[in-house]
UniProtKB/TrEMBL annotation:
Enzyme Commission number, as recorded: 2.4.2.1
Annotated positions binding a purine D-ribonucleoside: 233, 275
GO CC, one annotated term: cytoplasm
Transferase keyword on record: yes
Domain of life: Eukaryota
Gene3D superfamilies: Nucleoside phosphorylase domain
Keyword Ribosomal protein: no
Entry-linked Pfam families: PNP_UDP_1
GO molecular function, one term: purine-nucleoside phosphorylase activity
Stated family: Belongs to the PNP/MTAP phosphorylase family.
InterPro entries linked to this entry: Nucleoside_phosphorylase_d (IPR000845), Nucleoside_phosphorylase_sf (IPR035994), Pur_Nuc_Pase_Ino/Guo-sp (IPR011270), Purine_phosphorylase (IPR011268)
Name of protein: Purine nucleoside phosphorylase
Length: 320
Protein backbone atom coordinates (compact mmCIF):
# COMPACT_ATOMS: atom_id res chain seq x y z
CA UNK A 1 0.00 0.00 0.00
CA UNK A 2 1.30 3.48 -0.84
CA UNK A 3 2.28 5.49 2.26
CA UNK A 4 -0.10 8.28 3.22
CA UNK A 5 1.30 11.74 2.75
CA UNK A 6 0.16 13.41 5.95
CA UNK A 7 0.14 16.94 4.52
CA UNK A 8 -2.51 15.88 1.99
CA UNK A 9 -4.89 14.59 4.67
CA UNK A 10 -7.73 17.06 5.29
CA UNK A 11 -7.35 18.82 8.61
CA UNK A 12 -3.70 17.83 9.09
CA UNK A 13 -1.43 20.83 9.57
CA UNK A 14 1.73 20.57 7.44
CA UNK A 15 4.96 20.75 9.45
CA UNK A 16 5.72 24.34 8.45
CA UNK A 17 2.50 25.68 10.06
CA UNK A 18 2.76 23.70 13.31
CA UNK A 19 3.84 25.87 16.28
CA UNK A 20 7.45 25.61 17.31
CA UNK A 21 7.93 23.62 20.51
CA UNK A 22 10.00 25.76 22.86
CA UNK A 23 13.25 24.02 23.58
CA UNK A 24 16.52 24.66 25.29
CA UNK A 25 18.69 24.65 22.15
CA UNK A 26 16.93 21.56 20.93
CA UNK A 27 17.72 19.56 24.09
CA UNK A 28 14.12 19.13 25.19
CA UNK A 29 11.03 20.85 26.51
CA UNK A 30 11.84 23.51 29.07
CA UNK A 31 15.17 25.06 29.96
CA UNK A 32 17.93 22.90 31.37
CA UNK A 33 19.08 23.01 34.97
CA UNK A 34 22.29 24.74 33.82
CA UNK A 35 20.41 27.44 31.92
CA UNK A 36 18.25 28.23 34.94
CA UNK A 37 21.32 28.17 37.17
CA UNK A 38 22.75 30.91 34.93
CA UNK A 39 19.62 32.98 35.57
CA UNK A 40 19.89 32.36 39.32
CA UNK A 41 23.58 33.29 39.31
CA UNK A 42 22.80 36.47 37.38
CA UNK A 43 20.38 37.56 40.12
CA UNK A 44 22.55 36.44 43.04
CA UNK A 45 25.54 38.33 41.68
CA UNK A 46 23.53 41.57 41.58
CA UNK A 47 21.99 41.60 45.06
CA UNK A 48 23.20 40.71 48.54
CA UNK A 49 19.63 39.80 49.62
CA UNK A 50 19.31 36.04 50.23
CA UNK A 51 15.56 35.37 50.42
CA UNK A 52 14.06 32.15 51.71
CA UNK A 53 10.49 33.16 50.91
CA UNK A 54 9.31 33.93 47.38
CA UNK A 55 6.01 35.72 46.74
CA UNK A 56 4.07 35.77 43.49
CA UNK A 57 1.79 38.81 43.41
CA UNK A 58 -1.49 38.15 41.63
CA UNK A 59 -3.61 40.48 39.50
CA UNK A 60 -4.01 43.84 41.19
CA UNK A 61 -1.99 42.73 44.21
CA UNK A 62 1.55 43.58 43.46
CA UNK A 63 1.62 45.91 40.64
CA UNK A 64 -1.18 48.05 39.57
CA UNK A 65 -1.90 50.44 42.39
CA UNK A 66 1.30 52.24 43.13
CA UNK A 67 2.41 53.05 46.69
CA UNK A 68 0.02 50.71 48.47
CA UNK A 69 0.85 47.33 47.03
CA UNK A 70 2.88 44.71 48.80
CA UNK A 71 5.82 44.92 46.41
CA UNK A 72 5.98 48.70 46.81
CA UNK A 73 6.47 48.20 50.57
CA UNK A 74 9.52 46.00 50.29
CA UNK A 75 12.35 47.81 52.04
CA UNK A 76 15.78 48.44 50.51
CA UNK A 77 14.50 47.07 47.21
CA UNK A 78 16.70 45.75 44.44
CA UNK A 79 14.55 45.56 41.30
CA UNK A 80 15.07 43.62 38.09
CA UNK A 81 12.86 44.21 35.07
CA UNK A 82 11.91 40.89 33.54
CA UNK A 83 13.24 41.98 30.16
CA UNK A 84 16.71 42.42 31.71
CA UNK A 85 16.85 38.94 33.27
CA UNK A 86 18.41 36.26 31.08
CA UNK A 87 15.95 33.56 29.93
CA UNK A 88 12.96 35.28 31.62
CA UNK A 89 9.65 35.80 29.82
CA UNK A 90 7.98 39.24 29.96
CA UNK A 91 4.59 40.16 31.49
CA UNK A 92 1.90 41.27 29.05
CA UNK A 93 -1.15 41.63 31.35
CA UNK A 94 -2.47 44.90 32.77
CA UNK A 95 -1.85 44.89 36.50
CA UNK A 96 1.37 42.84 36.19
CA UNK A 97 4.31 45.29 36.27
CA UNK A 98 6.94 42.77 35.25
CA UNK A 99 9.75 42.98 37.74
CA UNK A 100 11.41 40.98 40.48
CA UNK A 101 11.92 42.79 43.75
CA UNK A 102 14.46 41.62 46.34
CA UNK A 103 14.42 43.25 49.78
CA UNK A 104 12.87 43.03 53.24
CA UNK A 105 9.24 42.62 54.20
CA UNK A 106 9.09 43.35 57.91
CA UNK A 107 12.47 41.96 58.90
CA UNK A 108 12.40 39.02 56.49
CA UNK A 109 14.38 38.91 53.25
CA UNK A 110 12.04 38.10 50.37
CA UNK A 111 11.88 37.99 46.63
CA UNK A 112 8.58 39.13 45.09
CA UNK A 113 7.39 38.69 41.53
CA UNK A 114 5.50 41.83 40.59
CA UNK A 115 3.62 40.13 37.81
CA UNK A 116 3.37 36.49 36.77
CA UNK A 117 3.10 34.59 33.49
CA UNK A 118 -0.13 33.02 32.32
CA UNK A 119 -0.82 30.30 29.78
CA UNK A 120 -3.26 32.58 27.91
CA UNK A 121 -0.42 35.02 27.20
CA UNK A 122 0.96 32.36 24.89
CA UNK A 123 3.55 30.84 27.22
CA UNK A 124 3.73 27.07 27.67
CA UNK A 125 3.16 26.03 31.29
CA UNK A 126 6.82 25.17 31.92
CA UNK A 127 7.71 28.74 30.95
CA UNK A 128 4.98 30.22 33.16
CA UNK A 129 6.65 28.35 36.04
CA UNK A 130 10.27 29.05 35.16
CA UNK A 131 10.58 31.67 37.93
CA UNK A 132 9.64 29.04 40.53
CA UNK A 133 12.63 26.91 39.53
CA UNK A 134 14.82 30.01 39.60
CA UNK A 135 13.51 30.66 43.14
CA UNK A 136 14.57 27.16 44.11
CA UNK A 137 18.04 27.70 42.68
CA UNK A 138 18.55 30.95 44.58
CA UNK A 139 17.76 29.17 47.87
CA UNK A 140 14.07 29.95 48.40
CA UNK A 141 12.30 27.38 50.60
CA UNK A 142 8.73 28.72 50.66
CA UNK A 143 6.55 29.75 47.75
CA UNK A 144 3.69 32.07 48.63
CA UNK A 145 1.44 32.38 45.59
CA UNK A 146 -1.38 34.93 45.50
CA UNK A 147 -4.05 35.29 42.85
CA UNK A 148 -7.30 36.97 41.95
CA UNK A 149 -10.18 34.53 41.55
CA UNK A 150 -13.90 34.34 40.97
CA UNK A 151 -15.86 33.20 44.01
CA UNK A 152 -17.90 30.12 43.21
CA UNK A 153 -18.94 29.03 46.70
CA UNK A 154 -22.20 30.81 47.44
CA UNK A 155 -21.05 31.92 50.90
CA UNK A 156 -18.11 33.84 49.42
CA UNK A 157 -18.31 37.61 49.01
CA UNK A 158 -16.27 39.92 46.84
CA UNK A 159 -13.24 41.01 48.87
CA UNK A 160 -12.96 37.73 50.80
CA UNK A 161 -9.53 36.13 51.06
CA UNK A 162 -9.39 32.37 50.53
CA UNK A 163 -6.55 30.30 51.94
CA UNK A 164 -6.06 27.60 49.30
CA UNK A 165 -6.53 24.18 50.88
CA UNK A 166 -6.24 22.19 47.66
CA UNK A 167 -6.59 22.50 43.91
CA UNK A 168 -8.09 20.68 40.96
CA UNK A 169 -5.70 20.65 38.03
CA UNK A 170 -8.23 20.94 35.19
CA UNK A 171 -5.56 21.65 32.58
CA UNK A 172 -3.62 18.65 33.82
CA UNK A 173 -6.64 16.43 33.19
CA UNK A 174 -6.12 17.25 29.51
CA UNK A 175 -2.40 16.44 29.74
CA UNK A 176 -1.16 20.01 30.02
CA UNK A 177 1.27 19.99 32.92
CA UNK A 178 4.37 22.09 33.69
CA UNK A 179 6.33 18.88 34.34
CA UNK A 180 5.49 17.44 30.91
CA UNK A 181 8.64 16.36 29.07
CA UNK A 182 11.96 14.95 30.21
CA UNK A 183 12.44 14.98 33.99
CA UNK A 184 15.61 16.32 35.59
CA UNK A 185 16.03 14.55 38.92
CA UNK A 186 18.04 17.51 40.22
CA UNK A 187 14.74 19.37 40.43
CA UNK A 188 12.63 16.47 41.64
CA UNK A 189 11.15 13.03 40.96
CA UNK A 190 9.33 11.93 37.81
CA UNK A 191 6.12 11.22 39.72
CA UNK A 192 5.72 13.75 42.53
CA UNK A 193 2.88 13.32 45.04
CA UNK A 194 0.42 16.23 45.29
CA UNK A 195 -1.90 15.23 48.18
CA UNK A 196 -0.07 17.53 50.63
CA UNK A 197 0.57 20.36 48.19
CA UNK A 198 -0.61 23.19 50.46
CA UNK A 199 1.37 23.13 53.70
CA UNK A 200 -0.89 22.21 56.63
CA UNK A 201 1.09 24.12 59.27
CA UNK A 202 1.09 27.32 57.21
CA UNK A 203 -2.67 27.09 56.67
CA UNK A 204 -3.09 26.77 60.43
CA UNK A 205 -0.83 29.77 61.05
CA UNK A 206 -2.76 31.76 58.42
CA UNK A 207 -6.01 31.16 60.28
CA UNK A 208 -4.41 32.21 63.60
CA UNK A 209 -2.95 35.36 62.06
CA UNK A 210 -6.34 36.23 60.51
CA UNK A 211 -7.77 36.16 64.05
CA UNK A 212 -4.91 38.27 65.43
CA UNK A 213 -5.55 40.90 62.73
CA UNK A 214 -9.34 40.66 63.24
CA UNK A 215 -9.89 39.75 59.60
CA UNK A 216 -11.11 36.22 60.27
CA UNK A 217 -14.58 37.33 59.16
CA UNK A 218 -13.29 37.69 55.58
CA UNK A 219 -10.73 34.87 55.54
CA UNK A 220 -12.00 31.51 54.20
CA UNK A 221 -10.42 28.24 53.19
CA UNK A 222 -11.26 26.40 49.99
CA UNK A 223 -10.40 24.64 46.75
CA UNK A 224 -9.03 26.55 43.74
CA UNK A 225 -8.93 25.61 40.12
CA UNK A 226 -7.08 27.13 37.18
CA UNK A 227 -8.57 27.27 33.71
CA UNK A 228 -6.56 28.25 30.65
CA UNK A 229 -8.35 31.58 30.06
CA UNK A 230 -8.36 34.28 28.84
CA UNK A 231 -12.15 34.20 28.69
CA UNK A 232 -14.13 34.06 31.90
CA UNK A 233 -16.43 31.03 32.33
CA UNK A 234 -19.86 30.18 30.99
CA UNK A 235 -22.72 29.47 33.39
CA UNK A 236 -22.64 25.77 32.54
CA UNK A 237 -18.88 25.57 33.12
CA UNK A 238 -19.19 27.24 36.51
CA UNK A 239 -22.00 24.94 37.57
CA UNK A 240 -19.91 21.93 36.58
CA UNK A 241 -16.93 23.23 38.59
CA UNK A 242 -19.18 23.87 41.58
CA UNK A 243 -20.47 20.32 41.42
CA UNK A 244 -16.96 18.85 41.55
CA UNK A 245 -16.01 20.87 44.64
CA UNK A 246 -14.32 24.02 43.32
CA UNK A 247 -14.73 27.12 45.53
CA UNK A 248 -12.74 29.67 43.52
CA UNK A 249 -11.79 29.88 39.83
CA UNK A 250 -8.72 31.52 38.35
CA UNK A 251 -6.13 31.32 35.59
CA UNK A 252 -2.86 30.67 37.42
CA UNK A 253 -1.17 29.23 40.54
CA UNK A 254 -1.90 25.50 40.07
CA UNK A 255 1.05 24.89 37.72
CA UNK A 256 3.31 27.09 39.88
CA UNK A 257 2.40 25.01 42.93
CA UNK A 258 3.07 21.75 41.06
CA UNK A 259 6.47 23.04 40.00
CA UNK A 260 7.29 24.17 43.53
CA UNK A 261 6.24 20.89 45.14
CA UNK A 262 8.17 18.94 42.50
CA UNK A 263 11.36 20.65 43.74
CA UNK A 264 10.35 20.24 47.39
CA UNK A 265 9.45 23.82 48.25
CA UNK A 266 6.80 24.48 50.91
CA UNK A 267 3.71 26.08 49.44
CA UNK A 268 1.13 28.51 50.73
CA UNK A 269 -1.45 30.21 48.48
CA UNK A 270 -4.13 32.87 48.83
CA UNK A 271 -6.96 33.81 46.46
CA UNK A 272 -8.52 37.26 46.64
CA UNK A 273 -12.16 36.84 45.63
CA UNK A 274 -12.51 39.67 43.14
CA UNK A 275 -15.86 38.81 41.59
CA UNK A 276 -18.85 36.63 42.11
CA UNK A 277 -19.12 33.76 39.62
CA UNK A 278 -22.48 34.02 37.88
CA UNK A 279 -24.16 30.62 37.99
CA UNK A 280 -27.64 31.61 36.76
CA UNK A 281 -28.79 32.61 33.30
CA UNK A 282 -31.12 35.44 34.40
CA UNK A 283 -28.29 37.61 35.74
CA UNK A 284 -26.91 40.80 34.19
CA UNK A 285 -23.48 40.81 35.85
CA UNK A 286 -20.43 39.93 33.74
CA UNK A 287 -16.92 39.22 35.03
CA UNK A 288 -14.32 41.76 33.89
CA UNK A 289 -10.67 42.51 34.51
CA UNK A 290 -11.33 46.11 35.70
CA UNK A 291 -13.38 44.79 38.62
CA UNK A 292 -10.58 42.35 39.42
CA UNK A 293 -8.06 45.19 39.59
CA UNK A 294 -10.44 47.45 41.56
CA UNK A 295 -10.99 44.81 44.24
CA UNK A 296 -7.21 44.29 44.39
CA UNK A 297 -6.90 47.99 45.13
CA UNK A 298 -9.68 47.90 47.72
CA UNK A 299 -7.97 45.08 49.61
CA UNK A 300 -4.34 46.05 49.12
CA UNK A 301 -3.76 47.39 52.65
CA UNK A 302 -5.29 44.36 54.35
CA UNK A 303 -3.48 41.95 52.06
CA UNK A 304 -0.17 43.70 52.57
CA UNK A 305 -0.50 43.56 56.36
CA UNK A 306 -1.67 39.95 56.25
CA UNK A 307 1.09 38.74 53.93
CA UNK A 308 3.76 40.66 55.86
CA UNK A 309 2.73 38.97 59.12
CA UNK A 310 2.52 35.58 57.44
CA UNK A 311 5.99 35.98 56.01
CA UNK A 312 7.33 36.74 59.51
CA UNK A 313 5.60 33.70 60.97
CA UNK A 314 6.55 31.32 58.16
CA UNK A 315 10.16 32.49 58.38
CA UNK A 316 10.27 31.40 62.04
CA UNK A 317 9.44 27.82 60.98
CA UNK A 318 12.55 27.64 58.79
CA UNK A 319 15.79 26.37 60.24
CA UNK A 320 18.58 28.99 60.10
O1 LIG B 1 -2.55 36.41 37.96
P1 LIG B 1 -3.88 36.12 38.55
O2 LIG B 1 -4.22 34.67 38.57
O3 LIG B 1 -4.04 36.75 39.91
O4 LIG B 1 -4.93 36.85 37.59
C1 LIG B 1 -6.31 36.55 37.44
C2 LIG B 1 -6.50 35.62 36.26
C3 LIG B 1 -6.37 36.57 35.09
O5 LIG B 1 -5.03 36.78 34.79
C4 LIG B 1 -6.95 37.84 35.60
C5 LIG B 1 -8.37 37.99 35.16
O6 LIG B 1 -8.90 39.21 35.59
O7 LIG B 1 -6.95 37.75 37.03
N1 LIG C 1 -11.07 32.00 35.44
C1 LIG C 1 -11.32 33.07 36.18
N2 LIG C 1 -10.29 33.82 36.59
C2 LIG C 1 -10.56 34.89 37.35
N3 LIG C 1 -9.74 35.78 37.90
C3 LIG C 1 -10.48 36.67 38.57
N4 LIG C 1 -11.78 36.36 38.49
C4 LIG C 1 -11.85 35.25 37.73
C5 LIG C 1 -12.95 34.43 37.30
O1 LIG C 1 -14.12 34.67 37.58
N5 LIG C 1 -12.61 33.36 36.53
Amino acid sequence: MAPINASEVKGYAPKEVLPEVETDNGKGIGYSYDTLQETANFLLSRTSVRPRIGIICGSGMGSYWKDGSLADHIEDPVRFKYEDIPNFPVSTVEGHTGQLVFGKLGDVPVMAMQGRFHYYEGYPLWKCCLPVRVMKLIGIKVLMATNAAGGLKSAYKVGDIMIVKDHINMMGFAGNNPLHGPNDERFGPRFPPMNRAYNYEYRKIAKEVAKELSIDNIVREGVYTCLGGPNFETVAELNMLKMVGVDAVGMSTVHEVITARHCDMHVFALSLITNECVVEYDHDAEANHEEVLDVGRMRQDILRKYVTKLVERFNKTLTP
